Amino acid sequence: MKIGVLGNGITATAVRDFLSSSNDMVEVPVEDADIVVTSPGIPPRDWPKTTAEIISDIEFAYRIIKQRKKQPVIIGVTGTNGKTTVTAGIAHALNQNPYGNIGTPLIANIDHAQNEAYIILELSSFQLFSSPSLYCDVAIIMNIEPDHLDWHESLDHYINAKKNIIQSPNQTVYLPQRLADLFQTTTARVIESLPVPGWPQFLGHHNEKNSAIIHDVLTHLGIMMAPLHQAMSSFELPPFRCESIYSEHGLTIINDSKATNMAATMAAVNSFSGDKLLILCGEPKESYSEDWINGIFNECHTVYAAGFLSQNKHVFPESAAKKIVFFDHLKEATQSAIKAMSCGTILFSPSGASFDEFQNYIDRGQAFNRYVQEII
Predict the structure, then answer these.
(1) pTM listed for this prediction
(2) Helical H segments across 21-135, by residue range
(3) Structural domain tally of the chain?
(4) Are 217 and 248 found together in one domain?
(5) Domain final position from 210, 232, 254
(6) Does residue 267 fall inside a structural domain?
(7) Strands 53-56 and 35-38, how do they pair?
(8) C-beta separation of 259 from 268 below 8 A
(9) What are the tens digits of pLDDT across the range 229-269?
(10) Measured torsion, CA atoms of residues 129, 132, 136, 142, in degrees rounded to the nearest 10
(11) Which residue range forms the structural domain that includes residue 221?
């Protein structure tokens, strides 16, 4: 079979590496291909015109796996926020490597993965959009909030891409109540109704929901309680997701650098009680609404905004901008916050992309940790 490949990143490289050692597939120019495998970062508007079917790397790997007689149980996790934590937690408890949007393409380790009992996938909306036959025995949609609209061009397009993970009434589907109502399904397991296991590393209400999903999925797969709790006792959340980096003398500092959209920041703000000072920074994906900023100020007595936001105050409602304290750089905001707060919680939950000062949310999270360590 002749395969075309779009892109030059991690995903495309993994597909090309697979093809280079395949006995029955070969890479060819897109115009000569039977099937084209696209990198997730390339939006449909930039796909070349071709009569060949264009599919994701996940769909490509899935079709190869489907040719085998023995089929692993596939667990797929998607959503705007929280999917990495849930994917990593399930994989940890099952002692499996997670694949997909979490970092390692499935095709890069397909010979090993297809012989395992489980395949755990973190699935982005980009991948799901071009995965028409992917069937997940367990399909989880954590939540859907406006995000990646530059790629999808509309919220409906984004929602429908996420919804592609639901293929059949035979799946075990997890949805928040709002999406169960929207998708008009009464068979889904409603996330808000799941019992919370009480694992201490899951800080905040939204992380408690994440832990509830992990717990419920694994118990329904037949994992017994004692080994499950033992396995999760050694699980560490992926970094910069409501991560407590300091907690002494009544002051707690939380690094939530992964919060790159408003919904994630609001979830973090609602997860902690008591006095809170919130630090925002980065480039928001849309202007802040009155409802959003009012919800923030209902929970936080002080809001700092740094970087791009200090030069673009118009993204806030005018009334809110007068109450926010602005700083040119995150370092200055961090220093001021630590001086201002003797007790309570300093919550760094940016709500925007990192590209004003940093390469990515990891670089930003590491920088925030450094700034704190220099002062504390």
Answers:
(1) 0.88
(2) 57-65, 83-94, 110-113, 125-129
(3) 3
(4) no
(5) 232
(6) yes
(7) parallel
(8) yes
(9) 999 999 999 999 999 999 999 999 999 999 999 999 999 99
(10) 20
(11) 68-232
